[in-house]
Amino acid sequence: MLTKTAPAAAPTPMMAQYLEIKEANPDSLLFYRMGDFYELFFEDAEIASRALGITLTKRGKHLDQDIPMCGVPVHSADDYLQKLIGQGFRVAVCEQLEDPAEAKKRGSKSVVRRAVTRLVTPGTITEEKLLDPGESSAFLAIGRTKAGGELALAWIDISTGQFRIAATAPERLLSDILRVGPREITVAEAVFEDPELRPVFDQLGLAVTPLPASFFDSATAEERLTRFYGVSTLDGFGNFSRAELSAAAGAIAYVERTQISERPVLERPEREDSGATLFIDPATRANLEIERTLSGSRQGSLLKAVDRTVTGGGARLLAERLRSPLTDCDAINERLDSVTFFMAGDERLASDLRDILKSSPDMPRALSRLSLNRGGPRDLVAIRDGLKAAEAVRRLLEAADLPAELSRAAASLSAAPGDVANRLDAALADEVPLMKRDGGFVRAGHHGELDEMRALRDESRQIIARMQTELIEETGVKSLKIKYNNVLGYFIEVTQQNSGALTDTDEAKGRFIHRQTLANAMRFTTTELADLESRIANAADRALAIELEIFDRLQAAVIGSAEAIRGAAQALAVIDVSIGLARLAESEGYCRPKVDGSRSFEIVAGRHPVVEQALRRQAAHPFVANDCDLSPEGDSEQGAIWLLTGPNMGGKSTFLRQNALIAILAQTGSFVPAGSAHIGVVDRLFSRVGASDDLARGRSTFMVEMVETAAILNQASDRSLVILDEIGRGTSTFDGLSIAWATVEYLHEKNRCRTLFATHFHELTALAETLANLHNVTMRVKEWEGDVIFLHEVARGAADRSYGVQVAKLAGLPESVVTRARDVLDQLEAQGRESKASKLVDDLPLFSAEVAKREPAAAAKPSRIEEAVAELTPDEMTPREALDALYRLKGLITKPQ
């Protein structure tokens, strides 16, 4: 007999609502608002419990299984969001849209209406706690046309409103993405699955969100953009290609998808010309450690070494400029003029400006939060104080003779909305709470009714006491009291014998209303007391309502002036960067580079900006400055190649990198660590320094080296700067030498670019005899009593050895290893590198004398064939005699020896 299985219980109304909302957001952790907590259920709860280190509990059952649950308090949700976003999760925030009391009115089984109000992703966060003040927080969208397969990028930083667009191509897609430095990427599903582009996404280590192709449809892109900006046409925005429109539409669609009903105030999209910035390939960006070291740390990077900014906006602008150095000489020199102004100008002016900037809040991020209805009173204060700072800076600059860039900044400061600043200053208190719901942020005296409600709320006892005094005087009953209980509320109480004063006269009868009679007392009220009671009871709610109305009006005024506020903030950032770079140049002894359209690259007494500061902190020896001149000679337009030889630890890698970093700093618009510098604008920078593998993609260290070298040879132009170190060292000696040889020739004859080429293949120095623009230089060393002293100086000439054994000794290799290495090296050098090194192998194991303590093996006796060959005199033999000798040797092979 079969038994019936009881059907699984249907989910509760609340759980049914949760499941429905979760189904619509399958790729996000769902923060489901329940009172003062965001709750997570099922797998979301298990994931969040592990990620956040919070307790996993359970709530009821679903399909006869316990429902895992965990939660976080609403008031501290930002801290938990920060952890989740940092670990790469996306979070859907589901809020209650009504008061629970309203839901109860609809019936006992009704649930509070809820909906997802925003998606929190790595590239769309705006909360102050979740953002690094000095780092941008952009997401990037990639658009592609169906017909030509053209690619474009669009990136938006919701936290500041920045919106940029640029064309790209498959071969430079990775480089351009790294130049932008986004927190996450969104792309059409077909593009994400494209086998040509998918490896790019796999390398990035970023969150990539594939979206339906309709989000990136270039045919409807213009309509999406005009609707978002509330304009009828994009003509005033500039001209965009179909691919650029596709990317822009995808970016706006992602804003709408993640922000739900809210709309940030974004700048109009600004198109960037791909040739306007220095192209830096991915390997170069990593090797030069521009923003982060290879280990991912900011400490030790170029940015950390040169950042002297004092504002978040200035720090972000400097990082952006270092990521994307310019190629336009005029624009570069405008920036240099700004630094020169603060270098050569009034020191007091720079100091006063810097003091103001230090106290200047981050207006763009406050503005963004306000536009998304996530702002609070402190964001309004940030706008107020930021506009005050902008006005103070403007006044300091108004009498100065400013260069072009600073003059434009001053104009933006003049356009700042002073009326908004005044309104904010008049309305906001000096100290305000974080959340607007807490109230207390409106200045006393700003709004009459608000002051009255606050008085009722905060001084009700004093008010009641005053009314009681007035009634005593009016009635003459000194024992009259105004009291309160939960049944009657406020009431007037007198004794029975004194009640006549409140009941006997016609005037009293019309004024005092009987409420209750007790054995020894009578209780009354008046219309004034009833009204006062009502106002006291509602005072707190009314005071908060008035403050929220004031907040909304101030918020609208700020958003209405968003463009001018953002312009003022950008101006402050420009001034901050210029002063910071001037301070850097003064403190570190940097010079202004000459940047022009020539092919010159002449650095006198150049230094590595990061290493120099590190040596100073360590109180080590001072940095040794070196010259570098890759400029064309005579009437030639071809840049030079410096072939750099010398020992390991001699400073080759430092010298290579410092010249690349000097070029980046110069084209960023910064002074440079050198005695003097003349740099013809570099269009592309390639640096192959250091060795690494890419095992995840099946590439050995040597394969990675060859791939990166191929990219350089295929892409470098005659305006490029190429830095190469140890090409060919990852394979056999003759293979490596051949590849290095051919690479140098190709760079000289085909690419014709300015090149620094470091090598241990000393044979390459012979190329200086045949390649007109190749020059041999070396890292100088000094030998003293068997040891080597590294001078870290670059000099003309070529090294004849690498001093590897000496370096091994310095590294601490066992003395036996060093001694044996010297013996092997002496024999190799005596026999010549092309000799039969196999004889040395017969002596293995290398450490037999030290390890086994046995005598060295006796030298092997020459064979009969060797003896016979040694007796031959080829120069004195006739052809017939030579042939006879050959047959005799052949005969010896077949006979026992």
TrEMBL record:
Record SUPFAM superfamilies: DNA repair protein MutS, domain I, DNA repair protein MutS, domain II, DNA repair protein MutS, domain III, P-loop containing nucleoside triphosphate hydrolases
InterPro entries recorded: DNA_mismatch_repair_MutS (IPR005748), DNA_mismatch_repair_MutS-lik_N (IPR007695), DNA_mismatch_repair_MutS/MSH (IPR017261), DNA_mismatch_repair_MutS_C (IPR000432), DNA_mismatch_repair_MutS_clamp (IPR007861), DNA_mismatch_repair_MutS_core (IPR007696), DNA_mismatch_repair_MutS_N (IPR016151), DNA_mismatch_repair_MutS_sf (IPR036187)
Annotated coiled-coil segments of the chain: 522-549
Positions with a binding annotation for ATP: G646, P647, N648, M649, G650, G651, K652, S653
Location of the DNA mismatch repair proteins mutS family domain: 720-736
Family membership: Belongs to the DNA mismatch repair MutS family.
Protein name: DNA mismatch repair protein MutS
Source organism of the structure: Oricola thermophila
